[in-house]
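Form P-L/3: holo structure prediction, ligand tryptophan.
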Amino acid sequence: MADDFTVTPWEVSGDIDYGLLMERFGTAPVDDALLRRIGRHGEIHPMLRRGVFYTHRDMGWLLDEYEKGNRFVLYTGRGPSGQTHLGHMMPWIFNKWVQDVFDVPMLFQMTDDEKFLFKDLTLRDTKSLAYQNALDFVALGFDPAKTRIILDTENISTLYPIALKVAKKVTFSTAKAVFGFDNSTNIGSIFFTTIQAAPAFLPSEQQGRQVPCLIPCGIDQDPHFRVARDAAPGLGYPKPVMLYCKMFPGLGGGDKMSSTDEMGTIYTTDGPKDVKKKVGRAFTGGRVSVEEQRRCGGNPDVCAVHKYNYCLFESDDSKLSETADRCRKGEILCGECKSILTDRINAFLESHQEKREKARDVIDGMAFDGFEWVKG
Ligand code: TRP
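OUTPUT (holo model):
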């Protein structure tokens, strides 16, 4: 069934129809005209060109303002519930590109409160995971002078007045309808969305004027920002502008990489042997036997290895489609593709892990208002 899937901030399941999801959420497609417009500012990122970032809210307005000299602030975030994996990194890599191309400040929110409320974790757990996750974010090279990391329980005195203003505009009935809460939901969870809205309005609050905010993130976060956008005009804030990506697939063939499937998940701290093992077991579009695959060809459209190249590991369009063609003709077998991808992931991780170590030296300076990380 085409509509048999769920995408919410807390659950992604089923076979996602991204076109239908865009319709359900009422977001606009990233079309050629928008791509051309973005392309005037810098070379289009492959994730945009290939439709990984595929839908948006108000990008046209954001660019109008930018072109008039009204710079936006970038904002994205992470709920620290476990170690960082490649699925988390994908939108962050894109955010780094936006920071570079548009030369804008960046806010990164770490919702240790959210993961305490929604998961079976202590506040100490989520706080120390926040540090581990933030190292990966910092390692991507965000400009330390222009980037600040907000840790909710540490920066709450800054967020709280804004969250309160948002809270006053959102009814319980809206929260129930948007997030599916019921009478058994803990009351912290019901309030939480206002905390996620707050960083989007923080620059406007600080500067006492309407500062545009762009939030590139996974489409699963749209429910939060629908609520935030509805509240914005009544509070004198501009509506946050959204640019959404598809979920990064799991190696096991699922629609979203998730720590609940350890073998289908590549963590940023994985070593070459882990990667080899995990990619070796990846779900592909291969046939039951070598002979049959040589004869009938494979199916790259369902192949996790192909999706990884598509999203992250092959930026050359012609090479990507050449490999897919050779797969369909049975000229290249899954083992070969897996071994190429293994090498690529390992090369990426080797360099990332070095940068992650160096991130320890600059991360303190990126803490919003200079809070102290829990590093243990
Ligand atoms: N709720 C997000 C998560 O669970 C974390 C988050 C906070 C976020 N602020 C954000 C994600 C802004 C995207 C954009 O991962």
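COMMENT: DSSP finds 16 helices and nine strands in the chain.
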